[in-house]
Amino acid sequence: MTTFVLVHGAWHGPWAWDRLTPFLHQAGARTITPSLTLNGDIGLHTHVQEVLTALDAAADDTPAADLRDDLVLVGHSYAGLVVRQAADLRPGLVDHVILVDGWAGDDGASMFGLAPEAFVHAIQAAAARTGAGDRVPAPAPAMFGITDPDDAAWLAPRLRPQPLRTFTETTRLSGAVDRIPGTGIHCRPQTYAFDRFAAEIGYRTIALDGPHDVMLTHPQALARLLVEAHAFRFNNKKLQD
User: Fold this and answer.
1) Tens-digit pLDDT profile for the chain (241 aa)?
2) Which of 20, 45, 122, 165 shows the greatest Cβ crowding within 10 Å of its Cβ?
3) Contact between residue 35 and residue 15 where contact means Cβ atoms under 8 Å apart
């Protein structure tokens, strides 16, 4: 049984995957949706530790003989940086890394280092308007491509402020993650250069029509693509072996 560890992006929570996980379960997969803490002045490295806890728990629940080809680590948006560092620290557990419109780079990458200046200035200004200046208020649903009134009404009350330090802390990568197969799913129309981020770190890239929060609007299509992307990687590996 394939286990998908699904890591949500900034301002979101594990609930971001609620519409998608039933389709993965129907495909015979298991899912784990860790929660990234959004309270307090914390950074990316805290989130990496939380994903490591989920990976270790998944390994404890999986027979050793099944670990090699069974665990897929998925990161949406900001979590692309998180899952790559977590995989770098657990290369023996993670079989495949999949980014969904994910920010990603080499050692020393960060959201602020990858994003356009306009994005950085907007985030800094939003944080400055808060009390301590260390948290970023959640944008409106439209900023995630959610324009349907019902979907927007569902999403808006669930979004939470994001610690600013998660956008400024840089990744610490040894290079182990680069030996793990990776796939970058980028949504169309694109908001940022997610296809280029994935390609530059050597990942296979796949386009999917839908907004940035595609797991909310097209959960079945995304679930199918996750399963197919892993099957493609698994079958290629068997041919190489």
Assistant:
1) 899 999 999 999 999 999 999 999 999 999 999 999 999 889 999 999 999 999 999 887 765 544 444 899 999 999 999 999 999 999 999 999 999 999 999 999 999 999 999 999 999 999 999 878 899 999 999 999 999 999 999 999 999 999 999 999 999 999 999 999 999 999 999 999 999 999 999 999 999 999 999 999 999 999 999 999 998 876 665 434 4
2) 20
3) no
Report the 10 Å Cβ neighbour count for 85. 24
Global pTM reads 0.94
Q: Look-up: residue for tokens 């097209």?
A: 218
In contact, 97 and 233? CB cutoff 8 Å: no
Largest Cα–Cα distance of the chain, in whole Å? 56
| Alpha-carbon dihedral 71, 77, 81, 82, rounded to 10 degrees | -60
Cα dihedral: 106, 107, 112, 113 (round 10): -60
Q: What share of the chain is helix, strand, coil (3-state, %, to 5)?
A: 45, 15, 40
